Amino acid sequence: MSPPARSSILRSPAAPLGLLLLLLCLQLPSPGDAARYDPTWESLDSRPLPAWFDEVKFGIFIHWGVFSVPSFGSEWFWWYWQKEKRVPYVNFMKSNYPPGFSYEDFGPLFTAEFFDADQWADILKASGAKYVVLTSKHHEGFTLWGSKYSWNWNAVEVGPKRDIVAELASSIRNRTVLHFGLYHSLFEWFNPLFLDDASSGFLKNQFPSAKSLPELYEIVNKYHPEILWSDGDGHAPDTYWNSTGFLAWLYNDSPVRDMVVTNDRWGADCICKHGGYYTCADRYNPGHLLPHKWENCMTIDKNSWGYRRNAQLSDYLTIEELVKQLVETVSCGGNLLLNIGPTHDGRIPVILEERLKQMGSWLALNGEAIFSTKPWRAQNDSATPGVWYTFKPKEDILYAIFLNWPSSGTLMLGEPKGITGKTEVKLIGYEEPLPWVSMGEKGMMVVAPQLPFTIFPYQWGWTLQLTNVY
């Protein structure tokens, strides 16, 4: 005889109260019912990317570390000087430092006396960005927190004598709505354990077991980053780093398991193939729609991620170039992660602050065409160069962001098709609807308003809002 159905027992007036409560509990979902992931790429790659990341679109990368002290050439200063022995770096050291001066001697000079986490948070907020990623440790191995696994080579014991990660995380969370993320380099150029592992063809795994993995668990448990930006595989496979094992813990059991977003740099051959979202390469901007969520991480300084004292004005991207990068990236389904490099004493250089605040001014007006948008059927216009599209499906609003004001007084759009009597075109920041003319299957021609540029505080790009187009 088959047992009675659970629902019939629940309806029975004779059912004991204890049994009713037990069965009700069995029917309710428990916290452990969430999907769990195995330590395999097939399983991990099936995890849906937390929705917030696609909504935010724009973040700020911060490269800061001991390399900010020499602040010459690149954040790869130590490698270029000691390993590759590049002439400019060797000569720089000969000319400016005494014989026998080591890279470790730069550590106490990383003073951060002007570092004000609240001020940084305010600058980041003014940029209009929605997330920030701080280099908790670069390839030099110096940690910006007092790591138990980086003895005497961390910001609490050497240099600032402060927990930089904790201070910035607190200010970001208390003063802004930005999501807080951390970059972490898997390998370290000159760590003896890593070098010994590498010499064995990575048959040994002393370094990830004793250093890299413990640090990752440490920063996740201590600082709860919502983005974990991995980098620096050292040409070692993901199996050496036990990346899948760590990510399974991160997605299943960590304190940020529901919100955390990861990238694709978890071992040789992982990039643009495995992970939460793809970076594919530094300064990656494909110019077309990709089937997987991606990020364009790039620098305001064209030549370096870290601060350079010898940078020239022409080495910095203009605000027009930065807006172009943002618009192209978002139109093609990506996020822009824009990098700045602070000074060794903790200042965000004023030219970088200016660029960030300029971006914030542009987004204050045009942000509705960036944030929480989706790619449209066409990413850029077929008739007029420099016109890029974003879309809000629920509102059925198409945005056409044009980077050059039409000298002819009209803007030809070859992709959207207007419907007479229904289609409305507006210029964001200008109250009156704009007249337009249907060009049939060739698109539509929008008449630009004859207005002085003083109405807009800048000339870095403008946005048309189109409704009822196809």
From TrEMBL:
The keyword Signal applies. It holds the Pfam family Fucosidase_C. Residues 379-467 form the Alpha-L-fucosidase C-terminal domain. Keywords: Glycoprotein, Glycosidase, Hydrolase, Signal. GO terms for cellular component: extracellular space; lysosome. InterPro entries: FUC_metazoa-typ, Fucosidase_C, GH, Glyco_hydro_29, Glyco_hydro_29_CS, Glyco_hydro_29_N, Glyco_hydro_b. Its EC number is 3.2.1.51. Residues 33-368 form the Glycoside hydrolase family 29 N-terminal domain. Residues 1-34 form the signal peptide. GO terms for molecular function: alpha-L-fucosidase activity. It is an enzyme of class 3 (hydrolase). It catalyses: a neolactoside IV(2)-alpha-Fuc-nLc4Cer(d18:0) + H2O = a neolactoside nLc4Cer(d18:0) + L-fucose; a neolactoside IV(2)-alpha-Fuc-nLc4Cer(d18:1(4E)) + H2O = a neolactoside nLc4Cer(d18:1(4E)) + L-fucose; an alpha-L-fucoside + H2O = L-fucose + an alcohol. One of its GO terms (biological process) is fucose metabolic process. The record marks 297 as: May be important for catalysis. Belongs to the glycosyl hydrolase 29 family. Homotetramer. Alpha-L-fucosidase is responsible for hydrolyzing the alpha-1,6-linked fucose joined to the reducing-end N-acetylglucosamine of the carbohydrate moieties of glycoproteins. PANTHER family: ALPHA-L-FUCOSIDASE, PLASMA ALPHA-L-FUCOSIDASE. This is Alpha-L-fucosidase. It comes from Podarcis muralis. The lineage of its organism: Eukaryota, Metazoa, Chordata, Craniata, Vertebrata. The gene is FUCA2.
